[in-house]
Amino acid sequence: MAWRFQHSVTSVGRRIESTASLGLVVPGPQQDSGILASLHRAPGVAATLASGLASRSQYLWFGGGYTRFVEADTDRRPDTLSWSAIYGYRPPGLRRDVNHWDYRGFAELTGEHTGRVRSNGVLLPDSETTSLWLGPSILAILKDVAIEGGIQAPLYRDVSASSYRRESIRFAINFSYLKYSSHAY
Amino acid sequence: MKKALALALLALLSSVANAEYRHVNMTVFGMDCAPCAHAIHVSMKGIKGVDMVNVDLNTGLVTISLVPGNTAGMHQFEEAVEKNGFTHKDATVIVRGKLAGTATAPVLEVVGTSDHYALTPSAQQPDLTALIGKLVEVNGLLPAAAKGKLPDLLRYKSITEAQ
User: I need a surface site. Which of A70, B20, B100, B123 has the fewest CB within 10 A?
Assistant: First the structure.
């Protein structure tokens, strides 16, 4: 659920906007590692706030979020505070019309702080983490289909090696279908 | 007498049927990407009577052609822009309607819609006396109005009796 609470259109192809969102986080089939692997899993809620500039050539975006999980059998995954700063660029040759793939590249700086893990009703010592990540991503959209891929490496990590497995790289690929409304009258 | 009345009624119905927007070229602010253009394209095509839509992202120009006999109103085009999160600015239009008012204060009524505009010339004012009460075709500019409102004024470049 998202709410665009601020919207300012400044010129052809350019706007500034801010959006808040609230979502449900549901554990998937992927097995966790380290101290998270032994926890009973439960869903959580994630709230985010993002604000930035979009234009035909450049994008600049800042965001932050907070995720809190429900307790399951005296276990609870850590609260997570996250933040991001994104710069995007679309080269002149790729500023094309609606019938072509729309590409843009981003440099994404993200960070997160996770709180202490609760296991069997006890807050585990040395289970807090702080990390900062940087990497490129590419977004391609054609009409109602979007594909995005990105990879990140750590710039800074304050993570207990005994509690968590070493995470040296992060990557993601997202496929989206965009539903447009015709607003038929 | 009956024949004359029937002819008058036929002429009136004919005028009503031909009062419509023919072309609308609207400048839209805020579209940064191809999906923005696609959203506008889909919304405009959803308006009954719209024939062709073209969106130029680099100029922000949305070009709309309409089929003869349509009853699409200006608020529908503006709403299609606003509902997608963008802002409409000036629009140039080719529109047919009944010329009402007086020669010095002409008003264009786009019969079949609720749209009516006070007409003002963009250059020297021609004598419109002979056109009052007739179906005319106007080529002009609708300045941007506040969100949710239609402009009151149409600055015309040309005004001719509709064929």
Answer: B123
Name the residue among B82, B94, B89 with its Cα closest to residue B44: B82
ipTM of the complex model: 0.72
d(CA B154, CA B142): 5
Nearest chain A residue (CA) to B39: A180
For tokens 């085009």, the residue is: B77
Chain B residues within 8 A of A56 when measuring between CB atoms: 32, 57-58
Q: Which residues of A touch B43 (CB under 8 A)?
A: 180-183
Q: Where are the domains of chain A?
A: 2-177
Q: How far apart are CA A74 and CA A33, in angstroms?
A: 19
Nearest to A97 among B45, B57, B72 (CB): B57
Domains defined along chain B, listed by start: 2-161 (3.30.70.100)
pTM, 2 dp: 0.80
